[in-house]
């Protein structure tokens, strides 16, 4: 089925949402819900389909070409297709890297446009933001060096030469710039305040991957980003004062992140003691799975 469905996608246009939506979802789940041996073959099939990759290129570009919906929570058929496209490409990046699969057609994306889709959200539905952040995590984890993806800036997208980085920090973080990093971090912090579970999980995961990327590139920049005083205000906002309020998965994962990068101005011994006390008093068997995993990582980090 994978071959005829991927061929069918390659014959479609981005506006053929009724046909493309279930087709891309089928391709996505075919990659994820199969054995490792079959998964490797499935990745090879999809990456050898040039028409499919060209279609995915057009679908992703629709993210910044179409006007924002009037209702941010409303997921239109066009937005649903964008979600499927971003999630499928993120998965292809992950598995192409894992199996070192041959690439027959590269995807080309403007990094500034991708970042702006998150930084300047313009009423984008939650699921679309989550999908784009999944893609961002994939490219950050691969150090922007995937053989499937060509990252360009605004100038290179128009055929001009790539401008020289304006500072040593920009040069170290290339293709990211310091200003983009701080804008992205502030935007992710703002998204966390919405307290949407699905969005919170994606935001914290994106923050974790971003700081890991920065730490490899420039440790001083990573520690500077992780110790921004605004993070402490964010934690106070997330802590609603209710019982066991520290035992929220996104709070625990943020605390773990700040511990990992020694942000003592963000998390103090007092907060660590409070978490340990709440964990000691909790019925661990009744904790949600996401909370149990986050608590385990926090305790390991401590």
TrEMBL record:
GO terms for biological process: meiosis I. InterPro entries: Immune_Signaling-Apoptosis_Reg (IPR052133). This is MEI1 protein. The lineage of its organism: Eukaryota, Metazoa, Chordata, Craniata, Vertebrata.
């Amino acid at each position: 089925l994978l071959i005829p469905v991927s061929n069918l996608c390659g014959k479609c246009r981005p506006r053929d949402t009724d046909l493309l939506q279930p087709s891309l979802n089928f391709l996505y789940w075919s990659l994820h819900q199969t054995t490792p041996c079959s998964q490797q073959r499935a990745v090879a099939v999809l990456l050898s389909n040039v028409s499919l990759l060209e279609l995915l290129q057009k679908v992703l570009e629709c993210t910044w070409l179409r006007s924002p919906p009037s209702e941010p929570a409303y997921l239109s058929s066009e937005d649903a297709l964008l979600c499927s496209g971003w999630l499928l490409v993120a998965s292809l990046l992950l598995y192409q890297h894992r199996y070192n699969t041959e690439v027959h057609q590269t995807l080309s994306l403007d990094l500034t446009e991708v970042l702006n889709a998150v930084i300047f959200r313009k009423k984008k539905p939650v699921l679309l933001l989550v999908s784009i952040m999944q893609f961002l995590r994939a490219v950050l984890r691969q150090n922007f060096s995937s053989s499937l993806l060509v990252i360009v800036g605004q100038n290179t997208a128009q055929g001009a030469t790539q401008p020289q980085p304006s500072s040593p920090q920009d040069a170290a973080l290339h293709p990211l710039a310091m200003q983009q990093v701080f804008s992205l971090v502030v935007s992710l912090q703002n998204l966390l305040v919405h307290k949407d579970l699905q969005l919170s999980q994606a935001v914290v995961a994106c923050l974790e991957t971003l700081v890991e990327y920065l730490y490899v590139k420039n440790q001083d920049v990573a520690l500077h980003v992780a110790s921004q005083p605004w993070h402490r205000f964010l934690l106070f906002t997330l802590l609603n004062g209710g019982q066991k309020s520290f035992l929220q998965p996104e709070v625990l994962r943020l605390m773990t992140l700040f511990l990992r990068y020694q942000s003592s101005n963000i998390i103090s011994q007092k907060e660590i003691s409070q978490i340990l006390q709440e964990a000691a008093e909790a019925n661990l068997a009744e904790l949600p799975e996401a909370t149990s995993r986050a608590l385990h990582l926090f305790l390991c980090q401590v």
